[in-house]
Amino acid sequence: MDIANDTYKNDIKTVIVASSVGTLIEWYDMLLAVILAKVLSVNLFPSEGSHFLETLAIVGSSFMFRPIGSLIFGNIGDKVGRKYSFLISLVLMGASTFLIGCIPNFSSIGWAAPVLLLLCRLLQGLAISGEYAGAVIYVAEHAPMEKRGFYTGFIQATVPVGLLVCLGVVFITESTMSEADFNSYGWRIPFLLSSVLVILSYFIRKRLHESPVFAELKKSGKTSKSPIKEAFTTKGNVKTMLKAIFGGNAAQSSVMQTNQFVVFFFLQNTVKLENTTVLLITGIAMFLSVYFYQYFGALSDKIGRKKVLIGGLVSSLILIPLSFYLFMKIGNPQGIDEVHSISTGAILKIVGLSFLLSVAAAATYGPLGAFMLEIFPTKIRYTSMGFAQNMGNGFIGGATAFVTEFLKTSFVVSAFLSPFIGLIYPLVLVVLAIIVNITLIPETYKTDLTTEDE
User: Fold this and answer.
1) d(Cα 213, Cα 145) in Å, to the nearest integer?
2) Which domains does the chain have, with CATH numbers?
3) How many CA atoms, within 13 angstroms, populate the side-chain half-sphere of residue 359?
4) How far is CA 109 from CA 45, 52, 122, 167, 182, in A?
5) Pair 3, 138: CB distance under 8 Å
6) For 411, what's the count of Cα atoms within 13 Å in the CB-facing half-sphere?
7) What are the pLDDT digits (tens) for 69-124?
8) Where is the chain membrane-spanning (predicted)?
9) pTM confidence score
10) Residue 450 has what pLDDT?
11) Rounded distance, CA 183 to CA 177, Å?
12) Any idea what the Cα angle at residue 71 is, between residues 209 and 363, rounded to 5°?
């Protein structure tokens, strides 16, 4: 079957825009609670003491729940269709994000506040578990083989763009009111705004047709009757899922989490920079790196997924410890234990380091969507890819922000190592991924998605 016929060639821009915009909004929703974790810890927990770690645990719970959601949405995607699965996930994500903005403070409803936050984050985890795999597969099953990385690269770029939009909305909201007003009620505005974006995206996506590869499979009666069962009983498929998880997915997620959130919290809580400065640094670095997510996806079409992915992993292994050391050296060389401002020159240096980390993260993430879908057969692709991606990206890699903070507060080490002890977690995952990728994973970029494994 020729999936690159005129109909789908003409429609590919619509497919990319509709898929990317919806995924971008879902990442905005997903990342917002992480960025505002500090404010949530003040409003939805008791006023006595710090509850930042507890808030991170609740915020991170959405990542833990994602493997379960991937089986639910994978089952829908492999039996009913790719389109319907990610329409449902979009609505679920929008509703749960809106509800976070409606949760009363701890002073009003007590411990029901963090419980409601937990429930909403679990629903968000359920939603994103179906969204990403569905969007990547939907785009790839429209794309010609030689441009699969290029087209799916647009989906990969939605993560930094989603974070960028998130940072921008928070920054603008904070800038238009006093700190007291933002901490009191202003933090709710970014959550409530999501509902408008979700409604617009829903109507754009509703107009799409099913992917040609899945439509042909359904027409020929070869769709899976029991995707979950087949994903775990098809010969060699569990082994393939494990390779996908530990050969790149868990490490990629941990690198991204480190680059986005661990850096953010490190500059806030350890380097002690002003919040607006941290938002500015993170925002500029994200903006400058957006292009590279799509670039590395396209590059993997030419030289292979593995070379690009391994290059990103090795770069991350070097840059993560070096960057965090220099963050402290540049941003707080005297070890000041209070929030302070730094010079423009120092800000630019930290932006430069954050940008390099972002480019390394882009090299690990850019080709990963295409790589993940290429190693699984069409009829159980959504379920298999979704579970592997959400187990690695969600359950293991998604715990990075919480684990790094936990290690910093739980282990007594020398004063020099204390700020950096949490980095052990992402670095171990990166080393494991390099070993698995080099020794066990085949190259996939010339895989024909229309050929079914018997």
Assistant:
1) 12
2) 6-205+227-440 (1.20.1250.20)
3) 11
4) 10, 19, 20, 29, 20
5) no
6) 16
7) 888 888 887 787 777 787 888 888 889 999 999 999 999 999 999 999 999 988 88
8) 12-36, 56-74, 86-106, 112-138, 150-173, 185-204, 244-266, 278-296, 308-327, 347-373, 394-417, 423-441
9) 0.82
10) 67
11) 10
12) 75
Predicted confidence (pLDDT) per residue in 183-212, tens digit: 899 999 999 998 888 888 888 777 777 667
Q: How many DSSP H helices and E strands does the chain contain?
A: 22, 0
d(CA 299, CA 7): 26
**C-alpha distances out from residue 30 to 123, 131, 245, 305, 314, Å:** 10, 11, 21, 27, 28
Single-letter residue type at 326: L
How does pLDDT run across 7-40, given as a tens digit for each residue? 444 367 778 887 888 778 878 887 888 889 889 9
Spatial separation of the C-alpha atoms in residues 113 and 237, rounded to whole Å: 42
Length of the chain: 454
Distance separating alpha carbons of residues 263 and 220, to the nearest angstrom: 50
- Write out the two tokens for 184: 């009191």
Confirm if 401 and 257 have CB atoms less than 8 A apart.
Answer: yes
Q: How many CB atoms lie within 10 A of CB 107?
A: 11
Three-state SS for 273?
strand
- φ, ψ for residue 340 (rounded to 5)? -145, 165
State the amino acid at position 319 in one-letter form: L
Please answer whether residues 133 and 77 qualify as being in contact, where contact means their C-beta atoms are separated by less than 8 angstroms: yes
Structure tokens that stand for 340 in this block: 């302070």
What confidence category does residue 319 fall into, taking pLDDT thresholds of 50, 70 and 90?
very high
As a three-state string, the secondary structure of 199-222 is HHHHHHHHCCCCCHHHHHHHHCCC
Residue 220 has pLDDT above 60, yes or no: yes
What's 340's DSSP letter? Answer: B
Q: Give Cα 262 to chain centroid, integer Å.
A: 14
Amino acid at 56: L
Q: Which residues, listed in sequence order, are joined to residue 299 by a DSSP beta bridge?
A: none
